[in-house]
Amino acid sequence: MKTETERYARQCDVTGEGMNEGYCIQDGLMYIKHEKDLLKHLREVEKEGNPEYDTLVAEGRLTDEFLLDEYYDEEYYLWTEWYEDIEYAGNMEIIESNKLIAEFMGIVFPKLGNVIVKEDELQYHTSWHWLMPVVKKCRVDSRCEHDEDIFWDAIHWALEECSIENTYKAVVEFINQYKK
After folding, report:
1. Domain of 136?
2. Looking at the domain assignment, is residue 4 inside a domain?
């Protein structure tokens, strides 16, 4: 029986965990799930920009509460929910599936050839140019010459439909089965 994968709208930049609520830093420059990680980040920012940081901490004037209030009032961060952003294969699932494909293709992060690439910049789910070399590798690695391979067949039929969404899903399923 197939279980439903939990989907997340954002990924915490500190822990890598999926999140549907948390702290949004500087209009989406960074996302943080836990308050303790936000406080650590705020302390790093404050220390970098405040030459009197150590003195103020020693005097007890730079408390966690003060930092949270001060940076919130300056609109440096806000706490929010992103439940409405969860669509088919939410951002986390796409990132994880694209990472799975990249690893299948032998890509070691953060480089793709001579180019530095972030996991969330992979485009296997939206670009035939990215996806077709993966399809070719799946064809070579499949056992369909000797045995029936239902996972390759799914890719084949998705290609017949000219559907990148269905081809992408079939490729991810093929790779998951291939890894077993």
Report:
1. 91-179
2. no
Q: What is the C-alpha separation between 43 and 138, in angstroms, rounded?
A: 48
pLDDT in tens, the chain (180 residues): 344 456 677 889 999 888 888 999 988 888 999 999 999 999 999 999 999 999 999 999 999 999 999 999 999 999 988 665 445 445 667 888 888 898 899 877 655 566 666 777 788 888 889 999 999 999 888 866 655 677 888 898 888 888 888 899 899 999 988 876
Cα–Cα separations (whole angstroms), residue 30 to 12, 59, 72, 74: 8, 30, 15, 16
Specify whether the CB–CB gap between 92 and 18 falls below 8 A: yes
Q: pTM above 0.70? A: no
Q: Are residues 80 and 16 in the same domain?
A: yes
